[in-house]
């Protein structure tokens, strides 16, 4: 039940982010939107990044990402990468 609800919320968030739906944002959707905005302001990337293997990074469409919140995972990955390389 929880997975279905998360999947539904994620789908709604992605539609809102893509500008395809004007909706009242629920708590989870609001968090996804906030994380996307933060990610784009800090890193100036329009798409989330994934790392399929060490030292390899790829931009992906948000709806193709395996994570519930690809923006959050990308942000964490880039922060940890920046901390290890500095």
3D shape: globular
Fraction of residues in helix: 55-70%
Number of domains: 1
The total count of strands amounts to: 2
Distance between the termini: 43 Å
Describe this structure in words.
With 86 residues, the protein is mainly alpha-helical. It has one domain. The chain contains 3 helices and 2 strands, in the order ααββα. A two-stranded antiparallel ribbon has the order 1-2. A hairpin with a 2-residue loop joins strand 1 and strand 2. The longest helix has 17 residues.
Summarize the structure.
The chain is mainly alpha-helical and 86 residues long. It contains 3 helices and 2 strands.
Which secondary structure elements does this structure contain, and how are they paired or packed?
Layout (H helix, E strand, L loop, with lengths): L1 H16 L9 H17 L5 E5 L2 E4 L10 H16 L1
Helix pairs in contact: 1-2, 2-3
Features:
about 90 residues, globular, mainly alpha, about 55% helix, 3 helices
């Amino acid at each position: 039940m929880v997975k279905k609800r998360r999947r539904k919320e994620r789908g709604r968030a992605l539609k809102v982010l893509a500008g395809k739906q004007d909706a009242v944002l629920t708590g989870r959707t609001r968090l996804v939107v906030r994380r996307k905005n933060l990610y784009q302001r800090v890193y100036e990337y329009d798409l989330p990044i994934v790392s399929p293997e060490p030292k390899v990074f790829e931009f992906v469409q948000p709806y193709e990402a395996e994570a519930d919140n690809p923006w959050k995972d990308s942000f964490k990955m880039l922060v940890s990468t920046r901390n290890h390389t500095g």
